[in-house]
Each structure stands twice: as C-alpha cells, then as structure tokens.
Write a structure and sequence with these properties.
Blueprint: H1 20-32, E1 34-35, H2 70-75, H3 77-91, H4 112-124, H5 126-131, E2 133-137, E3 141-146, E4 156-161, E5 184-185, E6 190-192, H6 196-215, E7 224-229, H7 240-251, E8 258-270, E9 273-276, E10 279-282, E11 284-293, H8 307-320, H9 332-343, H10 349-357, H11 362-373, E12 385-393, E13 403-412, H12 418-436, E14 439-442, E15 445-448, E16 455-464, H13 475-492, E17 500-503, E18 505-508, E19 524-531, H14 536-539, E20 546-548, H15 549-568
Parallel strand pairs: 4-7, 4-8, 8-19, 9-17, 10-18, 14-16
Antiparallel strand pairs: 1-18, 2-3, 3-7, 5-6, 6-20, 8-9, 11-13, 11-16, 12-13, 14-15
One 2-acetamido-2-deoxy-beta-D-glucopyranose binds at residues 46, 48, 349.
Keywords: Carboxypeptidase, Glycoprotein, Hydrolase, Isopeptide bond, Membrane, Metal-binding, Protease, Transmembrane, Transmembrane helix, Ubl conjugation, Zinc
InterPro entries: ArgE/DapE_CS, Bact_exopeptidase_dim_dom, Pept_M20_carboxypep, Pept_M20A, Peptidase_M20, Peptidase_M20_dimer
Transmembrane segments: 21-39
Length: 570
C-alpha cells in the first residue's frame, strides 16, 4: 500500500531508519491513527529498546453483572440470522444523501426514503418504540430517550447516521452484489451493500442492543439517549446541527456522561494482536479565500504582474513554506505509535526507540517527525495541511484579469487553531502585497490601503477548530475501554487464548457528526465496535462496501454491555 515510498534526498537524520517493507504495517496503523498511554504492565518484547515514553498496556476487562444475553448475541445462530436479516433490510432502504439538500419542511417528499426507514425501525424494534420516547428533530433526525432510574445521572448518548453516501450509478456493475441488495453471503459470512459499514451496522446495533435489554427486563439506572442524523455525509448541516442544538437545550453544557459515535474499528496489528482504535481527536478546518483585486485594461500594455501572476506568487510562496510538523504525547497518533512499537515484533528497534523515547528526548522526537514526514500519506496527520483547490481569474485573451481569486483548504493540526492558520496566511498575503505594491484587506478590515494597482483580500470560511481531545484516563474512559476489553477478549475472542487486545486511541483528519455535540461532553469516543477487515478502508464510500457478519454481533454486544456498565459504575 505504500507505493512510491522514497526517502527524501539530503536528510542525514534518516540513517538507520527502516525501509519500506518493514514499516508498512506501522504506517498502515498510522493511517488508522491509533494511540494510548495506559496503565503499566506488560513488558516490552524487544529487550534492546530502552523505553522512557508512554505505555500501551492492557486494561482490566469490565464485565457487567447483568449480561443475560451476551452469549446469545455472540454465539446463538438463530439470534445471528435474525440480526443479520434485520440489518440487511435496513440496507435495502437506500437513504442516499446528496451534497446539497433541501430543508425537510420545505420538501418532505425529498426525504421519502428516510420516512420509509423510520417506519422500518418502528416495525423492527417494537419494544424500543414502546418504552422509549421518540422525537423527530428537523423532521428527519431521530432522538430516542430511555429514562434511567436515577435522573440525577448524566445520560449516555449513542449516535449514528441514517444517511449513506450515494452510489454512483456508473459503478453499479462493479459491485459483486448490488449496492442495495443487503445480500448476505453465507459462504464468506459477509453482508453486502452501501451503508453496511458506514453506518447502519452501528445504528441498527444500537437499537438492537436496547431492544434486547428491554426484552431481558433490564432497567437502566443512567438514562440512555440515541441520536441519529440524516446528512452526516454532507456535513450534518440539517441533521446533526439541529440534533446537537436540541440536545444542548435539553441537557446543557457538559450535560452528558459520554458520547459514542462511528469511528475507528478494532484492527489486527499482527497475528493474534489486535488494537481497538477509538478516535479521540479530529483536525480542524478552514478555507482561506484569497482575492487579488487589480486593474483591467488591454493586454497589449500589461503591468509586470497581472493579478494571475500575483496569485501564482502567493500560492508558490505558501507551498514553499509548509506548516511545521510536530508530534506531542497528547496527539492520539503518538499513542498509536506507542502501541505499534510495544506490540509489534516486526518494527526495527531504531524506529521503536524513536517512538518510545520521543516523549523526553528532543532528538528522538525529531527523528520520529522526520520519519513520519517522509511519507505523503501520513505527514499531514502531524501538521496543518494546505491545498490550493480552486482558482478563478481572467476571461479573455486580450483583456487583463481585473480579479483573480483562489481557495486554499487547510486541515488544522490538533495543537493549532483557525486563528493561527489565518495569521500565517495573512503574513504571506502582507509580504506579497508589499512586494508587488498592493493594499491588504482581511475580512472586513482594510489593513493597508488599496494602491493604484489594487489590493489583496483574505477571508476565512467554514471555520472549525480542532476537536477537543477526549480524555483517555479517568473513570469514564476506564468504563469505556474496560468494556471494549471485555467484549473482545472475553467475548469475541472466547476460546482463542492466543488473541490479545489493546485499547488505544486514534486521530482522523475529517469530522463525524460529533462536531455539533462538543459542548455536551468532553468524553466523545468515535468507535466502531467491530474487527475492521483489511478491505474496509477501500470499500467504505466506494464500490463493494461489505462487512463480516461478526461485525454486527460485536457491535450489539458492545452497546449492550456498555449501557449496563455505565449504569453500574455511577
Ligand atoms: C540486542 O543487543 C545485543 C547486544 O548488543 C545483540 O547481540 C542482539 O542481537 C540485540 N538484539 C536485537 C533483537 O536487536
Ligand atoms: C461493570 O459491572 C461490573 C459488575 O457490576 C462492575 O464490577 C464493573 O465495575 C462495571 N464495569 C464498569 C466499567 O463500570
Ligand atoms: C487572532 O486572534 C487575535 C487575538 O484575538 C486577533 O487580534 C487577531 O486579529 C486574530 N487573527 C486573525 C488572522 O484572525
Ligand atoms: Zn459515517
């Protein structure tokens, strides 16, 4: 998967670093961006690496006292067939969402598939619909509330989204099984279709777990809330944005115990070694929109630099000065690497040493940064990225372009901010404006008056700060991670003592619907309770999306146990 890997020429620090084949697995993991710094415990396997950094160790499994159905969920074949069938039918309702969608109240017809989906949920989960209150937010968003016995406790919230990425009609023939067939292949024990992984597995599992708990006569102490958006794949502006506000009005700042949403799965590090990768951080976002306002005229008498030339100078200056790369121990990626270093038998010691000692040793840290920076696929996880994505200017061969504008998209590094990113772009705008004799405008402010040549304007749009980093220690994390440890090690892996699981954390450069829920709690864990097969990344949002049937069962088991454990540990 690491095609074209080549160390950059001219760097001396790279000597002694692993070559491509031996680091493939580590970098695959970096892609999934995992990390953790857990309790002390397991000794490092490579005796020659002295460790002064964080540890990735096992967590005590936390088994709930009430676990009436866990065996049934994971072992019973009748339960399995029924569960797979129920998920398959959910896949068969094509809740595709486009990039731009109407306000539901203005066009209910547009959301017909979603209403069909609601009716399907009502039919499939009768106890949920009998015992929980169901509210519709912005017509299509769903909130289910299950009141706990102790209303002084903060509720636990489970999220998922009803919508799926549209299937490009031109690619339908490339699917091994039609995208909305919900086909179950018993031979390979896999379930096929758009939305199997992203994200109906989770949505249906959440409802299935609650349904089963109700069937088992369980009464939660802590309230349980489910919240399902319907346009996550187009930024959640009609779904999660309204749901987040609705829940915030109800529960207030820090009013929830924890949130579980879609995210990183459990992945196989190497044979018999698995790591769970809940995402505990997300990069920020801003688009810098830069416009060069110049003067027009006949192109037979041009200035030395047209507005297009000035735009070119700006872009090439920005590109020649990438943002700084850095990796601190707070970065979920650092924990990922720690896990890989401590539990992989394949990583070379020089690499392990750079990872494990980078916390206290600036030289080792620099080595680690250099190492990650070598690879185009991973370098952006440790710095603010910049990509000039749109440019407009000029309309005619004999007319000077009065206006040239372009857009640079940034994904902001965890420790940085929208402000720092725009500050840096503004500094370059000022420098180039000064050099070429232009004025400067930032947002509504004229910072340097327009000259006879014109002025350069910078605006930031679609601003989003990096997500607050979710805690990876303390009682809420312990219950969450302990439940994962229990479900997989004592449940999914039962009878297979060779298999080991470590719970880590992960970082993504995109955002889930949780971006509208930040004020509700700092304990936001984006996690798919399933073993992510190697084809997962290639098929999500693409052709041939499918999941192992076991992924659905482990998801139900996790939600079931987590609900009980959040009630028992108050
Ligand atoms: C560890 O160090 C010893 C002594 O320097 C060496 O003989 C041995 O090969 C090393 N082991 C590994 C796994 O690198
Ligand atoms: C889960 O429940 C068991 C049994 O009551 C309890 O011992 C354990 O502490 C709970 N786990 C968590 C994570 O709260
Ligand atoms: C960044 O924040 C500072 C302090 O609030 C403010 O003065 C400055 O204008 C901001 N910079 C940008 C580029 O928005
Ligand atoms: Zn999703």
């Amino acid at each position: 998967m690491l095609r074209d890997y080549k160390p950059l020429a001219g760097s001396s620090q790279r000597r002694g670093f692993p070559k491509r084949n031996v680091i493939v697995m580590a970098l695959f993991l970096v892609l999934l961006a995992i990390g953790t710094y857990q309790l002390q415990g397991k000794s490092n396997r490579d005796a020659n690496v002295s460790i002064r950094g964080g540890r990735c160790n096992k967590i005590d499994p936390l088994a709930p006292s009430f676990d009436a159905s866990i065996e049934k969920i994971l072992e019973d074949s009748d339960f399995k067939s029924a569960a797979i069938e129920r998920l398959s039918k959910a896949i068969q309702i094509p809740t595709e969402i486009q990039d731009v969608n109407p306000m539901p109240a203005d066009n209910l017809e547009y959301y017909a598939k979603f209403f069909e989906f609601h009716a399907y949920l009502e039919k499939s989960f009768p106890l949920v619909h009998k015992h929980l209150s169901v509210e519709k937010v912005n017509e299509v968003g769903l909130v289910y509330s299950w009141a706990g016995k102790d209303d002084s406790l903060k509720p636990v919230l489970f999220m998922a989204h009803q919508d799926v990425v549209p299937v490009n009609r031109a690619t339908v023939s490339q699917w091994d099984h039609p995208p909305f067939s919900g086909y179950y292949d018993s031979e390979s024990d896999t379930l096929w279709g758009r939305g199997t992984a992203d994200c109906k597995n989770l949505l249906i599992a959440e409802l299935a777990a609650v349904e089963l708990l109700l069937e088992d006569g369980y009464e939660p102490v802590r309230s349980v809330v489910l919240s399902f958006g319907f346009d996550e794949e187009s930024s959640g502006v009609l779904g999660a944005k309204y749901l987040g506000k609705f829940l915030h009005e109800r529960y207030g700042d820090d009013g929830l115990y924890a949130i579980v949403d879609e995210g990183g799965p459990v992945v196989e590090l190497e044979e018999n070694v698995y790591i769970a990768t809940p995402i505990t951080g997300e990069k920020g976002y801003v688009d810098s929109e830069i416009t060069i306002h110049g003067v027009g005229g006949h192109s037979s008498v041009p200035p030395d630099h047209t507005t297009i030339g000035v735009a070119a100078a700006l872009i090439s200056t920005m590109e020649s000065r990438p943002f700084d790369s850095t990796i601190g121990s707070e970065n979920p990626l650092y924990g990922l690497l720690t896990c890989a270093a401590e539990h992989s038998n394949k990583l070379p010691s020089a690499f392990k040493s750079a990872i494990l000692n980078s916390k206290d040793d600036p030289k080792e840290k620099q080595k680690l940064v250099n190492f990650i920076s070598q690879d185009a696929r991973f370098k952006d996880l440790i710095k603010t990225s910049q990509a000039a994505d749109i440019i407009n200017g000029g309309v005619k061969a004999n007319a000077l372009p009065e206006v040239t504008s372009f857009l640079v998209n940034h994904r902001i590094e965890l420790q940085s901010s929208v402000n720092a990113t725009l500050e840096r772009d503004l500094a370059i705008v000022k420098e180039i404006a000064h050099h070429y004799g232009y004025g400067v405008k930032y947002e509504e402010q004229l910072l340097a008056p327009a000259t006879e040549l014109g002025y350069i304007e910078l605006r930031g749009s679609r601003k989003l700060e990096p997500a607050p980093i979710s805690p990876t220690h303390g009682p809420v994390w312990d219950v969450f991670a302990g439940t994962i440890q229990n479900v997989f090690e004592k449940g999914v892996f039962i009878g297979d003592d060779e298999k080991e699981l470590y719970v880590t954390t992960a970082l993504f450069s995109g955002n889930t619907d949780t971006k509208y829920y930040w004020p509700l709690t700092k304990n936001i864990y984006r996690f798919f309770p399933m073993i992510g097969p190697s084809y997962l990344l290639k098929t999500v949002h693409s052709v041939n999306e499918h999941i192992p049937a076991s992924a659905h069962l482990s998801a139900i088991a996790f939600i079931y146990e987590y609900i009980v454990n959040t009630s028992e540990n108050v």
